[in-house]
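Section handout 9: paired folding examples.
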Amino acid sequence: MPSWAGDAMALGCALAWAVAVLSFRRLDKLPPTAVNLFKNAIATVLLLVTMAVLGMAPDAARSATDWASLVLSGVLGLAVADTLFLAGLRRIDASVAAVADCAYSPTVVVLSTLFLREPLAAGLIVGGPLVVVGLLVVSHRRRDDTKPIDRAGLALVVAGVVTTAIGVVIAKPALDRSDLLEATTIRLASGSIALFLFETLRGRRAEVLSLFRPQPAWRPALVATFFGTYVSMILWLGGMKYGSASRAALLNQMGAIFVLVLSRFAGEVVPLRRWIGAAIAVSGVAVILLA
């Protein structure tokens, strides 16, 4: 893979996730566990079909440690983190969620430095703070804004973002030794199975399976699943596999900026301060890419 492949995948993941977020917000009347299981299960099937078409199979020679890392990463990142994120997204809007999303890259950078021994390059040191500052400006809410921030919803999203970061850092060493599609499929399948079993043990099987019945919500759910889980998951892990975890995490943060742009195209009024924040974040990404 060329040196820029990881960066391109990380940015592509951010764009795919932005498309998915706008679709996920149309599912705010459904239980977050139902939405999470639906997207994970459908994306797992899509990945299994993709692997079959390409003649790929699970790596039987993988070490027990790598299997455990991928499975644990899938459970944390897809069963726990995504459920927390979707639960919070029901209670706050996309701009507030962008504030919570700022916790992702610093968490990955800190964990990667401590546990993966990734160096803090100059581009990350200078560009990283610019990305975070830009996102904070984009997501700033003035006192005269009509809709107050739901602190519980914000806390849920922050918890989901931080748990996602923990999950991907756990998977990074095993991911470096694995095929991208196969490792992605293992994580998704592990998260789906864990979520289904947990909700079944809680006596909530009917609720967690509620979205699998044909209904109008399928249209936004399938769009969100395709872009937010199938496409973005491959690109997300690809950015981690073919680049550093810290660098990919910072580039992934551009998803909040893409949400801003797509929201404007959808007819929403975007305040000037958010465009200013977008410019700051884009400059940070430029520093990361060029340094």
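Moving on to protein 2 of 2.
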Amino acid sequence: MNYKKPTKAIITDAGFASRYLPITKTIPKAMLPIGNKPIMQYVVEECADAGIEEIIIVATREGKPIYEDYFNNSVNRIRKQLASQGKEDRYAPIQKVLDFPKITVIEQDPSYPYGNGSPIASAKPFIRDDEAFVVLYSDDVVFGASDVKTLIDSYEKHPDAKAIIISQEMPTEVLDRYGIIRLKDAEKGTLDNIVEKPKIEDAPSNLTSYGRYLVTPEIFTHLDPRNTGLDGELWTVDAITKMAEDGDVYVEKTAGKWMTTGDPKNYFMTHLDYVLENEPYADEVRKAVK
């Protein structure tokens, strides 16, 4: 069965981010800033740039009202104050947030086990049975291109796909830190499986998989609370590997630059990279770093 082209995206931020405590006891990890925007906004913009019409953010119970406020609160008192000061242009970044495609924020189903597949399973009621959809982990940001657009473009070429995943080539010395792709058919670019943190000498390729997927509703068959894997968690990668057993899962390379914010060190490096490439004070930062 071929499914309709995606118009919906699921973005996940339903973990406790224990490596960031104490700040994440109050603020969701993806609300930490890069420049003057939260991480989550970059992920939402990636969807909007690709023509996605509806976004479902899956959050914790504590995070849900924070995301709802950020993406829906027009803060009219600030707008009026800026207007009275002749600084209306400073309201433009807020208006951009309000103009994003439809955003619905839901809480992860508390009955599901821990694992990065549970937020996706929690959003099942928002996905039609006849449509493919896109999944993004808010840990991952992509600069310079929209992976979502790459996924949708690939789906138009491969309407038979069970799923499509994005990859990035990584240096040999870091392959033991990531999920590494083993190809079933290198010429077709189809997936066999993903080897999690292999020994460097055992890595099946230098292609790293990260949180950008186009999937069909068939994934919900495998994202069942009873189908837990390593450490008793529900894993998205396990579900995608199962789909690759039944048909073709295509692997595309990112057209941008993937960076992760999954821990404080990588968050800092991502923020620094953004500043050095985009902010007018980048040269001052370079001097300070030296």
